[in-house]
Design brief:
This protein has 390 residues and is an alpha/beta fold. It contains 15 helices and 14 strands. The N terminus is likely disordered. The structure holds phenylalanine. The site of phenylalanine has 14 residues, from helix 14.
Length: 390
C-alpha cells in the first residue's frame, strides 16, 4: 500500500505522522554506538528523507554510504576504529532536517555528518553543523548556497550554475529548441536556482522563454499551468523538480496533448519516476551525475556490487552517497587523531580522488568540479545520451 499511495498527499500525511526514526545502522556498524562512540568506534551521522515523496533519495543515499562503510570496516576500519552510521529520517521536511542534525551533534556527538540530498534540507541543517564545527558533506545538493554556509560544509557533486547550463546547451544545440517553457517548484531552492540558471544560459544562446510558471512540492494537479504552457506552443518544457511531481506532470502534460520533450535535472533520478509517470515519462531528458551505461570499470564494478547487495540498479544518489562516504573515509585516514577540525582540513585537500561519479577535487568554495551527463528516460532505464564537461 505504501508503494502505491506514495504520490498521494493523504498517504504522505499518514507516512509523516507515523514516520519512524531510523536508528543506528546495524549492517554498517553492527550494534549501537554510545555517545561520541566508544574508543574503538567512529560515529558518523546521516540525515535523509527515508519516508515521504522523496523517500528514494534518502534510501538510495543511505545504501551507498553503508556499502562504503562496510567495505572500510572489512579492511579494518579507519585508523583501527570501526565506522558506525547513525541515520535519522527527516521525512523530507526542512524543519525535521534541522532537528535531526541538532540531535546528531548534541546528543550523539557524531564526528562528521553526511547529507542531505535536497538543497533546501541541506540549507536548513548546514548552519548547525557549521556553528558546532562538525564537518558535513552533502553527496548531492547542487544549489550553490549550500557550501556558502561555511568552511565545514562540502559537497562531492557539481553545482547548478553548471547543471542549468548543461541542459540549456542541450536544448538549444542538440534539440534545436528555440522556445522553451519553464515549470518550477517555488518551494525548492534547488528548483528555483536551476530554473534561473537554465533560463540565463538559454537566452544567451538565442533562445526564448515563452512562459515561466510554477507549482509547489506536494501539489498533485498541474493542469492549469500545463494548459497555459500548451497555449505558448513551446519546443520543450523545462521542469527542474523532484520525481514525484515530475511523474504526475508528465502524465498530465501528455493527457493535455503536450507532445514536446520535457527536460529536467538530477531531481528526476528515482526508480519511482517511471512508476509514477508511466509511459508519459518516456523519451524525456534530464541531466545527471553518472550513467549506469558507463563502460568505466570503476562504475561497472560499483553497479555489480550494489546489485548483489541490494537487488537493484544504483541511481545517482546511491553512487554519490558511496562517493561522499569514500571522501570522508579517506580524509579521516589522513588526520592525526580524527578531530573534526582535522577532518575538515583533510576533506578540503581532496584532490584527483577517483570515485564512482568521477574524479573529485574539492575547490576553494568546497565544491566538486565534475562533468554531467544527459540521459533519456526509457522505462526504468535512463539511456545515456551525452557527457558535458565543466
Ligand atoms: N541536486 C538536488 C538538490 O540539490 C538533489 C538530487 C541530486 C536529487 C541527485 C536527485 C539526484 O536538491
Amino acid at each position: 500500500m505504501f508503494k502505491k499511495l506514495l504520490a498521494l498527499p493523504l498517504a504522505l500525511a499518514v507516512v509523516a505522522s507515523v514516520g519512524c526514526t531510523r536508528k543506528s545502522d546495524q549492517a554498517a556498524g553492527g550494534g549501537s554506538a554510545s555517545a561520541s562512540g566508544s574508543s574503538n568506534e567512529i560515529l558518523v551521522g546521516e540525515f535523509g528523507s527515508f519516508t515521504g515523496g522523496e523517500a528514494t533519495f534518502g534510501i538510495s543515499t543511505s545504501n551507498g554510504i553503508k556499502m562504503a562503510f562496510e567495505e572500510a570496516n572489512a579492511k579494518g576500519g579507519v585508523k583501527g576504529k570501526k565506522l558506525v552510521l547513525k541515520s535519522l529520517d527527516n521525512q523530507g521536511k526542512a524543519e525535521e532536517a534541522a532537528s535531526a542534525v541538532t540531535r546528531l551533534i548534541t546528543q550523539d556527538h557524531v564526528t562528521a555528518i553526511l547529507g542531505e540530498v535536497a538543497s533546501s534540507r541541506s540549507l536548513a541543517a548546514a548552519p548547525i553543523a557549521q556553528q558546532n564545527k562538525i564537518p558535513m558533506i552533502t553527496p548531492s545538493s547542487t544549489n550553490p548556497k549550500v557550501t556558502e554556509v561555511g568552511d565545514y560544509v562540502f559537497r562531492v557533486c557539481f553545482i547548478d550554475p553548471f547543471q542549468g547550463t548543461v541542459m540549456a546547451k542541450f536544448a538549444s544545440e542538440n534539440l534545436k529548441a528555440k522556445k522553451v517553457a519553464i515549470l518550477r517548484d517555488v518551494k525548492s531552492d534547488y528548483s528555483v536556482g536551476l530554473a534561473d540558471y537554465f533560463q540565463k544560459k538559454f537566452k544567451e544562446l538565442g533562445g526564448e522563454i515563452v512562459i515561466d510558471t510554477s507549482f509547489q512540492s506536494g501539489d498533485i494537479d498541474f493542469k492549469a499551468q500545463l494548459t497555459q504552457i500548451k497555449a505558448t506552443k513551446p519546443d520543450a518544457v523545462y521542469v527542474p523538480g523532484y520525481y514525484t511531481e515530475v511523474g504526475l506532470i508528465a502524465r498530465q502534460a501528455r493527457q493535455l496533448g503536450i507532445e514536446v520533450p520535457l527536460l529536467g535535472g538530477d531531481g528526476w533520478d528515482s526508480s519511482k519516476l517511471y512508476e509514477i509517470g508511466g509511459k508519459a515519462i518516456n523519451g524525456n531528458y534530464f541531466s545527471n551525475h553518472y550513467t549506469t551505461e558507463s563502460t568505466d570499470p570503476a562504475v561497472s564494478d560499483f553497479i555489480k556490487k550494489y546489485k548483489e547487495k541490494y537487488g537493484e540498479t544504483p541511481d545517482a544518489l546511491a553512487a554519490l552517497g558511496y562517493d561522499a562516504a569514500k571522501v570522508l573515509i579517506a580524509a579521516m585516514e589522513r588526520t592525526a587523531d580524527l578531530k573534526p577540525e582535522q577532518i575538515r582540513d583533510e576533506i578540503a585537500k581532496t584532490k584527483d580522488f577517483q570515485v564512482v561519479t568521477g574524479k573529485i577535487t574539492i575547490d576553494d568554495k568546497r565544491n566538486a568540479v565534475k562533468p554531467a551527463v544527459i540521459v533519456k528516460v526509457d522505462g526504468n532505464v535512463n539511456r545515456f545520451v551525452t557527457t558535458i564537461a565543466p
